[in-house]
Amino acid sequence: MKKKLRLSFNAPAVLGFVALCVIAQVISLLTGGQSNRTLFSVYRSSMGDPLTYVRLFTHVLGHAGWDHLLGNMMYILILGPMIEEKYGTGTTVFIIAVTALVIGIINMVFFPGVRLLGASGVVFAFILISSITIREDNTIPVTFILVAVLYLGQQIWQGLFQQDNVSQMAHIAGGAVGAGLGFLLGKAQQKKNRSSY
Predict the structure, then answer these.
(1) Structural domain includes residue 3
(2) How many beta carbons lie within 10 A of that of residue 14, not counting itself?
(3) How many CB atoms lie within 10 A of CB 177?
(4) How many domains does the chain have?
(5) For residue 152, what is the DSSP state?
(6) Which of 45, 49, 52, 68 fits as disulfide partner to 63, beta carbons 3.0 to 4.6 Å?
(7) Residue 58 contacts residue 39 (beta carbons within 8 Å)
(8) Is 122 among the domain residues?
(9) Range of 124's domain?
(10) Which residues pair with 42 in a beta bridge?
């Protein structure tokens, strides 16, 4: 007897994040961009305003347009399920939240006149995390070094020598968070694997 084909929601954290980004984009269109300014971007504002703290996390949901959104979501849908399968749904949510918070704080402290939005920092975190597979103690994978040099080096170069509307800071910070979390998660997984023998 043949089994019927059915849909599998294989990565709930990633699918939920993508759905929230699409909803944020639709709300932005319906409000003429006001929701992006109010909720879905981060910038220096009064520490007495409760939305300041909300925006530290929600800025990764907002995007400047459909092209911006689709570009980021393609990478997240490619890389995210592998990360979620390896580390779990809760950890994937944690990675997204920590990346958003770090980028939000850096933007508020060092770029007070910049309103930042978009999930590209999360994309770079996912790229760096997905390139790390720790097999032995005290080893650094060559693939990780190459990815870090190519992606982060490109962003530093563009940040220094090109004037555009792309936040290389978000990419670099996201990549750094991804690299750091990737090593920590890899070490934790190693310990878990050793203790299960």
Answers:
(1) no
(2) 26
(3) 23
(4) 1
(5) I
(6) 68
(7) yes
(8) yes
(9) 12-195
(10) 116
Which two tokens mark 135? Answer: 């097999």
CATH number of the domain where residue 34 is located? 1.20.1540.10
Q: Please, what is the Cα angle at 175 between 190 and 63, to 5 degrees?
A: 125
Q: Identify the burial level of 3 via C-beta atoms within 10 angstroms of its C-beta, where 0-12 means exposed, 13-18 middle and 19 or more buried.
A: exposed
Q: What is the pTM of this model?
A: 0.85
What is the full per-residue pLDDT of the chain (197 aa) written as tens digits?
677 777 778 899 999 999 999 999 999 999 999 999 999 999 999 999 999 999 999 999 999 999 999 999 999 999 999 999 989 999 999 999 999 999 999 999 988 888 999 999 999 899 888 877 655 556 667 877 787 777 777 767 766 666 555 567 787 888 889 888 988 887 777 777 666 65
Q: Is residue 43 part of a domain?
A: yes
Inside any domain, residue 2: no
* Block residue for tokens 């694997």: 193
Task: Please state, in angstroms and rounded to a whole number, the distance separating the CA atoms of residues 148 and 124.
Answer: 10
What own/partner pairs with CB < 8 Å and gap ≥ 24 does 37-45 have?
37/115, 40/117, 41/115, 41/116, 41/117, 42/103, 42/104, 42/107, 42/108, 42/115, 42/116, 42/117, 43/107, 43/108, 43/112, 43/113, 43/114, 43/115, 43/116, 44/108, 44/112, 44/113, 45/108
CA distance 43 to 65: 19
User: CA-CA distance, 92 to 83, in Å (whole number)?
Assistant: 7
